[in-house]
Amino acid sequence: MTTITFDTLKFVETLEAAGVPTSQAKAMAEAFREATGEELVTKSYLDAKLAELRTDFRVSRLDLVKWFAGLLIAQAALIGALVKLL
To answer: What 8-state DSSP symbol labels residue 83?
Structure first.
């Protein structure tokens, strides 16, 4: 996952320019940095995970088709055997 940098100094300066006291601005910047931590993800990371999930779904779908085809063949053989016996 890609690391995203957060400029706390610029964040504090922006808050101070808006009239927020320096101590509050510093506390808010620190809280925001800790809250975001490594929970931020990039679009490329999400695209890669989505592609991985799509591949998994394709494989699962193919497995289901194989099972259903096998069951249909087995069912047809069973019905054929029952008809022949009767």
So the answer is: H
